[in-house]
Amino acid sequence: MRLLYRTALVTAWGVQATCALAAPAPLAPVAEVEGIREYRLPNGLQVLLIPDASKPTVTVNVTYRVGSRMEGYGETGMAHLLEHLMFKSTKSHANVGAELSKRGMQFNGSTSDDRTNYYETFPADAEQLSWALKTEAERMTGANVLRAELDTEMTVVRNEMEMGENSAVGILIQKTVAAAYEWHNYGKSTIGARSDVENVDIPQLQAFYRKYYQPDNATLIVAGAFDAASTLSEISTAFGAIPKPTRSIAPTYTLEPVQDGERQVTLRRIGGEQALFVAYHIPAATSADFAAFEVIANALADTPGGRLHQRLVAPGRATQVFGWAGRSAEPGLLNLAAVLKKDDKLEDAQAVLLATIEGLAAEPVTATELRRTQLQSEKDFDQTLADPQRLCVTLSEAIAAGDWRLLFVWRDRMKGVTVAQVNAAAQAWVKSSNRTLGRFIPADAPDRSPLANRVSAQDALAGFKPQAAVSAGEVFDASAANLDARTTRVTLPSGLKLALLPKKSRGATVNLQFNLHFGSEADLRGERVAGSLVAEMLTLGTKNKTRAQLQDGFDALKADWSVSGSPWVAAAKLTTKRDSLAAALTLLAEVLREPAFPASEFEQLVRRSVGGVEAAATEPTSIAGVQLTRTVKPYAVNDVRYTADFAEQITALKAVNREAVAGFYRRFWGANNAELAIVGDFDAAEVQALVARLFGDWQAVGPYVRLSQPAATVFGQRMVALTPDKPNAFALGVLPLRLADTDVDFPALRVAVHVLGAGGFDTRLLTRLRQQDGLSYGAGANLSASNFELSGALTFYAIFAPQNLARVQQGFAEELARFVKDGISADELASAKKAIVAGHDTRRADDAGVAGAWAVWLESNRSFAFEAGLDAKLMALSTGQVNAAIHQWFDPARIDWSLAGDFK
Asked: Per the confidence metrics, is the pTM higher than 0.85?
């Protein structure tokens, strides 16, 4: 009777009862810092909401406080394995990765020492956001973590290991860090020991998942264009249904003892370059001293202003240097490295490296070096706040260190650190007894560093005062029609084509893309090497500024910039703020128009280029690419389109002289055949006048005739190159097509290639080679087609272990044959349409992407209406039309294959 009575109540009051249960109590923020609000669900989930209506995309990020630091004996690699399995099945999804791809979302996951995070970015849409939140809630406790899925993923994880092992520098860093730690798990690689990964116990892995993937051990971040109130309500519903766990997570307590002397590691394997890597124990990122170590790392390893660059790279003892201070939750490492050519003197470079680093006691860090680091830090912080996706990932690092608000503490500490504090930290920690290069030397009176203790996030936050939130931009319609309507396009009297799209952007950011074209097929004969070095030489000094002064100038303006190019086309990019745009563009004009071609920098560039070629000459990916291009595009040696082999590249680089490079610039460079696009927060009239003044009279001496890139006419070739001692191999295939992007079949081919191999997880090739056979970490296909001529190609690729070559070739052959025979299904067509169009929508929401697209449209006299037209044609396609295009254009027997690996 009691049960029947309860049923009657539910029947009579069912609607009211359901409504009461479906409306969770509204949440109040527990903290707010500079536009970021924190909430807490009753089950312990931390929620951060970062509304930003100026960019019509949303990023959903979940950070779990679990990484390799939490792994016990025999458990190494578990956190990383779970990252892979989170893209497999859950209670409601057969394949999460494929579902993300079908929806056209940008997504990824990553594992570090202290945390694991997952994110997806997509065009702002309530349905997509709802799906993402529900899916992340299900991944939190509802992933299946099945033995069958682990078995198929195991070879993929091994392939990822092998891919890392191909890098001698990467392995050197891993082994040196391992030697630096005796007890702490920071000494273990996140990817784990091969034996642990290959023999993982599935119940133990499931228990690891259940322990750490819980709401009280996670932070959910939603950033971008969304309604905060409704999103918070949906989060409360989706995640609030997960019960608060009863288990507790014990804190880690192992501290590394003070190091008793120098340590050394020597790594010997095949490679095209040498390297030195040095590590010093330092306090955790929560320590008040941590900012000092970031200054030290930059003062030593910045390029080109750092001491190691000046003393190793500039004189020709090394090709590059780099360094960083690890932002770790527990005491970590100050890391510094130098890369050398094969024939450089390693012992001489090591002596200079160590003398420079450990000579900080006698040659303290200067105020100029401190200010350079602070300017760079301020620029990076501003750019992070202006980019929701980047902000989510950066907040993950602060969460991993103890509290998301540490991101702002680090900023403030960097602003406030003094030269005295920096040099005191160097005196205490940067010394030979605390060094791991690997060498051990007994000492009668060791000069030991202090013991590194933990510092709580609460102590680190004491006295912290938030600053004003970054300025928000306008709510912007990123449709193709609105981009065209909002953009002013003009051609200056000089011939320079200009596109200006002023809009209120987050943080008052401005993005610029400047494309320049020059030369002709006849005039460029014999100019391949000299022409290839011009763009980088422009960045190495002007008539009035050194390379270091240029970088300092752009840093002071909070501007990111680059100049790159080939012998027939170049591109300059600039990202800055509204208030700095005029000065930054003027400085960029100085770079482009007043190069000095300094002799010392030219020598460094040649050495750096030779070192890069020597390194590439042992890499399967590079070898396969050069081998394929030389076969399918056999141009004459003096043709600017000729692809030289590695030996020819080195010989040519050593033979080229500075005057040849400077002469190429004087003859060919100018802005009369160029396109400039600027998107962001600026005054259009002022900027147009500035562009005319800076570039209106910049004319190339030589004529410009667009260089033809006809489709290859070589088919069905198979090339094999052996790369000894490389545990990862590469397969690259190309099917040349006489195809332009205006061809009637181009939209159908876009869809076909998306289904076959360009659509991420949800593709035939990746499903076969990774998901099903577990052979490859990355495999797929791409389509290219010219804007100007009948020249295109279908490209196929896969990375894999050399011993799996036969199975990889079989997988390609069977999938391509099935694709040609059966075509695609209606479901695949619908999914591809949605994903491709969503990708276009996401790209149009990115100001830098819009600037780059406008530069392309200007050259071909197009606008975003062309892209909208392609989308419309694509959406109108039937399966019959796509399958007819597949039958017409796909011929597996005509594919040229290039294979490189240790196949013996």
From this structure: yes
